[in-house]
Design brief:
By secondary structure, the protein is mainly α. 68% of the residues lie in helices and 0% in strands.
C-alpha cells in the first residue's frame, strides 16, 4: 500500500499484479485474502473503478469476515483503509 499512499498508482498496479493467490498456503488463505482485498479495493478506488466493481470486492470481503469472525475487518475498515 505504500505505492498507493504515495500516489504511485501505476507502480501499485504493477506490484499488485505479481500477487498470485493460488500460491497462498490454505491454512492462511482467508486471513491473507482479507489483506489482498483491502489492497485490491484501495487500488480499485485509485483507478476510479465503477461502483459495481467495488461492490463485488465488498461482497467478497464481507463474506470472508463473516466466515472467519474477524470483527476488526468491518466494511467501514475496508472503505477507509
Amino acid at each position: 500500500t505504500r505505492s498507493l499512499n504515495e500516489k504511485k498508482i501505476k507502480e501499485a498496479n504493477i506490484n499488485f499484479s505479481f500477487i498470485d493467490q493460488s500460491k497462498i498456503t490454505f491454512s492462511y488463505f482467508d486471513y491473507t485474502s482479507l489483506f489482498y482485498l483491502l489492497v485490491k479495493y484501495k487500488l480499485a478506488v485509485a483507478n476510479n473503478a465503477v461502483s459495481s466493481e467495488l461492490k463485488i470486492i465488498e461482497t467478497d470481503y464481507v463474506a470472508i469476515v463473516n466466515k472467519t469472525g474477524f470483527k476488526r475487518f468491518s466494511l467501514q475498515f475496508l472503505k477507509n483503509f
